[in-house]
Amino acid sequence: MSSPTTQDPVVLSSARWFWWIAGLSLVNTVMFHAGSDTNFVIGLGLTTLTNVMFAQQVGLAVAIAVVTIGFYFFIGLQAQRERLWAFYVGGAVYVLDALIYVRFEDWMPVAFHALACFYIAKGAMRLRERGSEQGTAQA
After folding, report:
1. Side-chain half-sphere CA neighbours of 98 within 13 A
2. How far apart are CA 39 and CA 49, in angstroms?
3. Residues sharing a CB contact under 8 Å with residue 103, sequence separation 6 or more, in sequence order
4. CA-based, 20 to 30 A from 37: which of 70, 101, 130, 138?
5. Which regions of 8-117 does DSSP assign to beta strands (E)?
6. Residue 40: what are its φ and ψ, rounded to 5°?
7. Can you state the percent helix, strand and coil of the chain, rounding each to 5?
């Protein structure tokens, strides 16, 4: 693992997508419960769905959102520490989240999920490349 000052900019940029996802999902949740009809397409389908399903049970909706957003924050932190598993787990869960939007035929968030997954995958591929380069150098 590299020190923070020598981190690969591609890996770091890719890892930060998880924080964007978490942050904008938080904003979407706050805006929904404040009565706004506006939301960010990069947010999570799961938080959007739970906000709608539990609109009358705000505490439950917020609790589910906190757990979900906390997961993405944690994954982003681990990805910034160059943990390859975090890219795989976070990316896979985000793909599953896109299926919520597919189910409701909301294509703009699906497209944004695809874009985010592309950049997340770039970070994972860079880590894999560096891992194989380090293995070759040691041999």
Report:
1. 18
2. 13
3. none
4. 70
5. none
6. -95, 135
7. 80, 0, 20
Token pair for 71? 């997961």
Q: Which of 14, 26, 44 is nearest to 117 (CA)?
A: 14
Question: Which tokens is 76 given?
Answer: 């982003």
Q: What is the pLDDT of residues 24-48, one digit of tens each?
A: 999 999 999 999 988 888 889 999 9
Q: Are 98 and 107 in contact (CB under 8 A)?
A: no
**Mean pLDDT to the nearest integer, 80-92:** 97
Q: For residue 100, give the nearest of 19, 36, 26, 25 by alpha carbon.
A: 25
Q: Which residue has the higher pLDDT, 120 or 133?
A: 120
Query: What length is written for the chain?
Result: 139
With vertex at residue 69, the alpha carbon angle to CA 32 and CA 96, rounded to the nearest 5 degrees, is: 95
User: Structural domain boundaries of the chain?
Assistant: 9-134
The whole-model pTM stands at: 0.88
Max Cα–Cα distance, the chain, nearest Å: 61
Type of residue found at 117: C
Q: Is residue 133 over pLDDT 70?
A: no
Q: What is the pLDDT of residue 60?
A: 97
